[in-house]
Amino acid sequence: MPLVIPGMRFAHTTVDSIVSCFIMLRILLVTDTEKPIGELRDALSQHGYEVLGDVASPVALLASVERQRPDVVIIDTESPSRDTLEQLAVMNGAAPRPVVMFSHDADQQLIRAAVGAGVTTYMVDGLAPDKLSPIIDVALARFAEETRLRQRLADVEQQLADRKLIDRAKGILMDKRGMSEAEAFETLRSLAMKQGQKLADVARQLIAMADLLG
């Protein structure tokens, strides 16, 4: 059963994971407001999080994430600007992280835009220090589930692409060598085993050779 400690990483109760669960979650703060960020920094520290630093300009977000490799990004804003959302989308494409956004803007269109840009949890009415840990835990859980679903979708798409390659390669062998479908598949499978390659990779090579030879 998972061992969960507020403000710490999730882990299973093995020796290695018991050690790792005491590693503090690393938080990167982002703000585009004039108010001091000290309150948020202090609240995070009191809850056992490691605050890596503050990012005052959205343009610096991706570079900061790639350099400091935070576990979670927290954004404190009156209302997220277009620049902030654009840079979030860039970060989400290059180095995705769970993102918690504290905002005072409850506009539904803006919330949808924020979620589309990569915000995992959008909190209206600002920061509530006593709710930080559950908010971050929810963001981590949502991000993990979204990552799992994206990976599953990518796997399905790759399987479909591989199947198309294999079917095309079988067609080439059936057309050029007069093989049956079963014989063509067995030929591809034998080549893949001999060369220590995936079936789809062998199919891709055969297709490329057939295209080259015309």
TrEMBL record:
Organism annotation: Andreprevotia lacus DSM 23236
Domain of life: Bacteria
GO BP, sorted A to Z: phosphorelay signal transduction system
Residues passing through the membrane, by range: none
Keyword Amino-acid biosynthesis: no
Domain ANTAR: 146-207
Protein name as it appears in the record: Response regulator receiver and ANTAR domain protein
InterPro entries documented for this protein: ANTAR, CheY-like_superfamily, Sig_transdc_resp-reg_antiterm, Sig_transdc_resp-reg_receiver, WH-like_DNA-bd_sf
Keywords of this entry: Phosphoprotein
PROSITE patterns per the UniProt record, alphabetical: ANTAR (PS50921), RESPONSE_REGULATORY (PS50110)
Gene Ontology molecular functions: RNA binding
Keyword Phosphoprotein listed: yes
